[in-house]
Amino acid sequence: MTDQTQKDFLVEESLRRRSELSSPENRLDRMIEIRAVEGKLQSLFNDGFIRGSTHLSNGQEAISVGIAATITTSDWVTCTYRGHGTALSLGVTPTAVVGEIAGRVIGCVGGLGGSMHLCGVEVGLLPTFAIVGAGYPVAAGAALTAQYQGTSDIAVAICGDGATNIGAFYETLNLASIWKLPVIFVVENNLYGEYSRIQLTTPIEDLAQRADSFAMPGVIVDGQDLDAVMDAMTAAVSRARAGEGPTLLEMKTYRYSGHSRADQANYRPAGELDEWLLRDPINLYAHSLGISDAELEERRRVINAEVDMATEVALASPEPPIADLFEFV
Amino acid sequence: MTDQTQKDFLVEESLRRRSELSSPENRLDRMIEIRAVEGKLQSLFNDGFIRGSTHLSNGQEAISVGIAATITTSDWVTCTYRGHGTALSLGVTPTAVVGEIAGRVIGCVGGLGGSMHLCGVEVGLLPTFAIVGAGYPVAAGAALTAQYQGTSDIAVAICGDGATNIGAFYETLNLASIWKLPVIFVVENNLYGEYSRIQLTTPIEDLAQRADSFAMPGVIVDGQDLDAVMDAMTAAVSRARAGEGPTLLEMKTYRYSGHSRADQANYRPAGELDEWLLRDPINLYAHSLGISDAELEERRRVINAEVDMATEVALASPEPPIADLFEFV
Amino acid sequence: MPKLRMREAVIRALADELESDPTVILMGEDIAEAGGPFKATEGLKEQFGARRVRDTPISEMGFLGAAVGAAATGLRPVVEMMFIEFIGVALDQLTTEACKFRFLSRGKLNVPLTVRASAGAGLGFGCQHSQMLDQWFRGTSGLKLAVPSDPQTAYGLLRAAIRDEDPVIILETRSLYGDRGEVTLGEAGIIPLGKGSILRSGSDVTVVALGQMVKHAAAAIQDGQIDAELIDLRTLIPWDRELVLESVSRTRRLVIVEESPYSGGWGTEIAAEVSRELFGQLLSPVHRITLPDTPVPYAASLESRYLPNAEVIRSQIDAYMTSGLSPEPWWRLEGLARA
Amino acid sequence: MPKLRMREAVIRALADELESDPTVILMGEDIAEAGGPFKATEGLKEQFGARRVRDTPISEMGFLGAAVGAAATGLRPVVEMMFIEFIGVALDQLTTEACKFRFLSRGKLNVPLTVRASAGAGLGFGCQHSQMLDQWFRGTSGLKLAVPSDPQTAYGLLRAAIRDEDPVIILETRSLYGDRGEVTLGEAGIIPLGKGSILRSGSDVTVVALGQMVKHAAAAIQDGQIDAELIDLRTLIPWDRELVLESVSRTRRLVIVEESPYSGGWGTEIAAEVSRELFGQLLSPVHRITLPDTPVPYAASLESRYLPNAEVIRSQIDAYMTSGLSPEPWWRLEGLARA
Ligand SMILES: Cc1ncc(C[n+]2csc(CCOP(=O)(O)OP(=O)(O)O)c2C)c(N)n1
Ligand SMILES: Cc1ncc(C[n+]2csc(CCOP(=O)(O)OP(=O)(O)O)c2C)c(N)n1
Ligand SMILES: [Mg+2]
Ligand SMILES: [Mg+2]
């Protein structure tokens, strides 16, 4: 395959992967896939295969999959540097994600962007944002396009708890409320912004409350429970599509790893991680589907093997040619 | 008098003027003075004597005087381009205010700043801010100095209703709350931001509510009633001095004039101004002090004459020498 | 050809683009109901409706960012920043986000966004409302910046900006809004970005100016005693290298007139490039006439010295031509400042 | 003299100033408990307490602005901007507020504020976390900007910045944090702002560099085959005019090595000024070695070409010396881009 055919194939594959999420089993598999890809990324980093930074979303997979499963490919999503889960859920392939982070031409941005800048225009993923808060107003703008053009499309902005302390968050909520934009603000409250526990930076506990200042519904959601995420999203999506305006969804969740690759997360109280592991989104969902531990293991095995293969394909792809540096300015 | 002696005199005079506010009659007179100075400024502008822009605070005098009367000269205040009332209340003399706006060396910034940039370091007024929202974090910083140095000083940030839609507002409230800074955020809700009625830009009515997102008390105050302003300030000031943290005070008020000098305020519904004039802060306070209409007229006459004289002194002062352009960079 | 004020030319450019392209929308503070603080959007809300001409809350990060998102997904927003200083609270969205979208999507997305801002000194607005601030935008790949000098360029550059596929900033010198001039409307009136214009041909010295300095530079040389070639740069980023180099290769002398500080002013880039490309061919060093390195003062007497006027420009050009050297700026001659 | 990594030199500078002046405080995201994302504040909270070394929420406008207010009223805050790009959401507080306070109080107030930020390319952080962005600060009167090139300059410039009475930004090139070198501590180690340093004397060409380019420029000429004089500029705003002019007046050739784009890069200002002051005395045009006008690419192979390295610098200097002309940059030679 030429690089171009390869790329076209990946786009088609992204769309197909997205459509798969209508099935519960596939949603489970996608969560497993995210976990597998991130495990792979961590070891590639550890082995010095890839450089820069990386921000794992392990523990938060239900949110990514729940969002992707409740919106369409013509809806737009803005997300942060912690975007592996979102990209994979929306449909971007493991090869395109790993390829990007390895700086290969097969990557979803052809190796120009890197770990913090995934993108999947065909499945609605705008280039992910490495500046905290920057994705909020951009999502509102995407929602404005939909509202203006009279389509029923919506936009979703995904950010962390720490990002609710930055000005752009408030300005966007206000604007979205005044203009009744079809946009959903998803706050992944994983209790930490980098190495700081939320209590050290934020004087309230439930961030959903911050919607009140803008006469906007703010909903607290169990982010470890895929069904709860989907229910909350579905309600917010219908509200948005019906022209009733924006919603803020606070997803209570946890990241299992540190903030970025070097971080051992020693600042976490002992036992906290273990407690959250008891409510692992993959296990919870598998059980709710009546899937046995053995079957779950088998699924993990299969998916891990697929991710291994995808990684090989990604790493076999060349680095981008120097002309690419100048072509997309 | 040389310019320098003139200036020293004005500084002393500012301090004296500030101390006057302990008496209710003087507070009344100060409100009358603000109204008089702004009337003078408007006519100087109309006559082409002075240029640039100007933002009158007529109708809002009780807030300015109420703030100045409840804090000390070692407390710090940040204020906006709509700062005549605040500057005069804090003690800056009419000569220094008019002189600044006329671009004269006798002005409180020696004619370098202009209408939007009054300043009175000796009475705690930091250079006023022409960028909406910019004064919020600076006030928090002044409060941090006090907290750090263990003095009982506090800071007050004064902004408009429209300014509660800008990011710096929220970032500052959050920071002030987390750090329990001795700062008071005063929102002069005069129902308009430039030519836009608040409903067109802000989806809630009571801006005090916006304190909730930061676990901060938010209090609605009748901004036309000097006693109410002083009561609310006094409570917030003691809270701040006691180390209990920041407070948001929403002062309900109204500006009688347009946003700036050219604005005829045609966007206001008929009758709205008239209704607010019924609750004019000067009249209300005069009545509460048992001062008759005749006596009030007499006070106005005397003060107008003083302001006329102050204006003459200001206009007799020369423009600043060119060396000043380079001396304070 | 109608005679229009510059602010009216802006209105016409916006109206013509709103008319010809249904994806064009306008946003900004008080631009709709009130017609804009400088009346540069007057009547557009009445003509095109509140759906297309939108008032915003005071949230520069919010609405500039929303414009970025809208532009990336199918609209062509034109944002008004009332004073260019206000982008100091929202620069991220323009330079770090919008200008990176094409790159970060490997060409799949682009951001056809226009930011109009009033800018410049001369009207007594004080030091936070009187700057040009083009330096904030230099060195950002993917960004263009133009500065009209009269009603025609205001019309033509703005239309070109709105049609451009990438982010463009137009700095409208506030003091020119009331100036009148004949304006060619329609397609013929559109002025391509990146192209300067020779306003007067001459053979002894090239004078390059931008924005309101064009008018003052023109006045400075209008008596014809110096045979100067006057170039209105029109677009600063990217500036018209070919035109300037061609002109200076003939005149062998260059004076740049900038509303920009001596240190870090935009003329340094042109001076550097011309000195490099025409090394050994210049009769005199490139000379820059700039603002002093100070905040913009308020008092009329100071502000009028702060901003180069025709008289100062003339005397500087005279000194340049006579001495063959780059004369010192007035503040050095008067011993007021070193830089 | 201890041998320290650059990040350790930063810690020592901060500790020494915290020690010697009780009004010095530090603020930034994750600088206290966690010791800083680059460990450039490690141990300081333990040593000086949480009152003086403060973690902040993610609110650049909020905490930078608070630092401005604190500085104006009696403290000497040192703010860490984790990556210089983040000041894109808070530029207003530095350039439009802090740098105007002295002027707007007619000298009664000043803002002794230091902003430290990590900056620069080379580590695979992608296009929103790899820029220098010094252009955002040029042309702002009252502001200084320095860029250390090694542990000693990191120590010395930072201490000078904290003692300065006005706002100073220090751009710490991230890729140098791990570099080790001997550091003179104490008063003797303080390096005045505004002064460059001749690292190697030479008579055929002056090479001016800044930040991590100093190391690469030094490597490029280390074999001594070219008799180059190497200047580490150290402070970019204001740059050391006297030193550079004196050197170039001897060598009559100048090469500037910049981690800054070709268009709008900081070298334009030096090139303009040198071309003006030494008009007729230069043997060759001033030559700039810069970044291309593109975003910072991620892939290692691209990023390593994006950033000038010793080899490229050497071959450019060779071409410059041989031809007597300013050679074209590689992207023009390879037909990849015009600018
Ligand atoms: C404006 C800005 N400030 C700071 C940073 C550095 N930074 C990157 S991620 C992060 C923490 C964000 O925390 P949160 O919003 O909770 O998201 P999470 O990483 O937990 O998903 C910080 C401070 C940044 N990228 N942008
Ligand atoms: C960041 C910024 N955006 C916009 C402006 C222009 N502007 C000046 S005053 C004003 C209205 C402010 O309204 P409000 O906060 O209600 O204060 P008021 O003028 O009513 O006292 C606006 C939009 C500005 N100065 N700064
Ligand atoms: Mg978090
Ligand atoms: Mg208001």
Could you please describe the fold and organization of this structure?
- The complex is a heterotetramer, with two copies of chain A (329 residues) and two copies of chain C (339 residues).
- Chain A has helices spanning 3-19, 24-46, 61-70, 84-90, 94-101, 135-149, 167-178, 226-241, 272-277, 281-288, 293-316, 323-327; strands at residues 76-78, 155-160, 183-189, 192-193, 196-197, 218-222, 247-252.
- Chain A is α/β, with parallel strands linked by helices and 329 residues long.
- Chain A has a single domain (3-319), classed as 3-Layer(aba) Sandwich (Rossmann fold).
- In chain A, strand 4 and strand 5 form a beta hairpin.
- Chain C folds into two domains: 3-189, Thiamin diphosphate (ThDP)-binding fold, Pyr/PP domains (Rossmann fold); 197-333, Rossmann fold (3-Layer(aba) Sandwich).
- Chain C is 34% helix and 20% strand.
- In chain C, strands 3-2-4-5-7-6-12 form a seven-stranded mixed sheet, with helices on both faces.
- The longest helix of chain C has 15 residues, at 6-20.
- Chain C starts with a strand and ends in a 6-residue tail after the last helix.
- The chains are: A alpha/beta (329), C alpha/beta (339).
- Chains in contact: A-B, A-C, A-D, B-C, B-D, C-D.
- At the B-D interface, helix 6 and helix 7 of B face helix 3, helix 4 and helix 5 of D.
